[in-house]
Amino acid sequence: MPGRPEWDGSDLAGRRLAVERREGDLAIFFQFASLLGPVVAAAERCTVLVEPRLAPLYRRTYPGLDVRLEGEGEVAATDADVFACFETLAKHFWPDEPTARAPFLPLEPDRRLVAELRSTYLARGPGPLIGFAWGSLNKSKDLPALDDWRALLGNLPGRFISMQYGDVGPALAQFERWAPGRIIHDASVDQLSDMDRFAAQIAALNTVVTISNTGANLAGALGVPTVVMLDDGFRLSWPAFGETVATYPSVRLVRKGGQAWASAMQEAGGRVMQIISGVGDGR
Hints:
Strand content: 15-25%
Protein name: Glycosyltransferase family 9 protein
Number of helices: 12
Radius of gyration: 20 Å
Structural class: alpha/beta
CATH superfamily of the largest domain: Glycogen Phosphorylase B
Number of domains: 2
Order of helices and strands: EHHEHEHEHHHEHEHEHEHEEH
Number of strands: 10
Distance between the termini: 45 Å
Helix content: 25-40%
CATH topology of the largest domain: Rossmann fold
């Protein structure tokens, strides 16, 4: 693009780099968050343009990063020698999976708020605190039915913290029958308007079990032990094969694999039990 030279992977010493999202949804800011550490170390200055709700997380995690808000005028006005998208950074800083895992640095939530939320939830009863989400506005997703959650909620100990957006009332009423007194819905957390508070909520949990969504990606970027249940459709956010995710070391994938959701839910529940029992990381 004229006037905006693309970074070609050459030495960044003494140069100012601007990083922007050119495609992809919110998950791209979580998937590639860890590569900003080596970028900041390599460049004289690194400016990143982020979705406004994520600015506090990025600024807290990388004090040396020049964090600006996405907007049409911001990119053109950024004083930089070279420009790059997140995928270009991944190509040069994460050329293979072992390298992708090495520099992982979790996003840093508001620790005061994390402690406050955790204390509030534990006041409702003993843990562990397990976050869960079950629904999506994306009609192309093959999702577990509410009844598929019955065994998982009934067999696991602790409190279940809803990470679900939208109208959750009917689903929570049904879940309450299977885990009476152990379902918590915190109306003060709204991921659609305050992502920083949502991040603090997730960081306050012991583990998360969820379908593929923004919360799953954020939990992975925060380093929270997470089990993500995937349908058989292709998802750009996740590897096509395997159970591990190079960009999220704390995440384990459970694939439906052409079976009924009940089988995948049973496997997911077993992995969560391993995590909260301290037996392993869900593998």
